């Protein structure tokens, strides 16, 4: 019933199964990402930092360009 250091073998077995399921899920996601051309690491970085930081300056640049062109046309 008990393994090394008094740990419960059932708990060790459950933990091993959890790790196995995680690795299987990771392999499946990695295969899907390899097929679609995306990787979890890159998409996480882009969704968290790059899209928010890059979309707002690009929007501000387009608004400043569109606002400066009517002024140039009016003058």
N-to-C SSE series?
HH
Which word captures the global form? rod-shaped
Low-confidence stretches: 42-68
Whole-number tally of structural domains: 2
| Number of helices, where a helix is a run of at least 4 consecutive DSSP H or I residues | 2
Main beta sheet: none
Secondary-structure-derived class: mainly alpha
Q: In total, how many beta strands? A: 0
Strand percentage, roughly? Answer: under 5%
Provide a brief overview of the structure.
By secondary structure, the chain is mainly alpha-helical.
What do these coordinates show?
It is a single chain. The protein contains 2 helices and no strands. It is an all-alpha fold and 75 residues long. The model is unreliable at 42-68 (pLDDT under 50). It has 2 domains: 1-38; 50-75. It starts with 8 loop residues before the first helix and ends with a helix. It is rod-shaped and about 45 Å long. The longest helix has 35 residues, at 40-74. Residues 50-75 have a biased composition (Low complexity). Residues 1-20, 46-75 are annotated as: Disordered. Residues 1-14 have a biased composition (Basic residues).
List the helices and strands and how they pair.
Blueprint: H1 9-36, H2 40-74
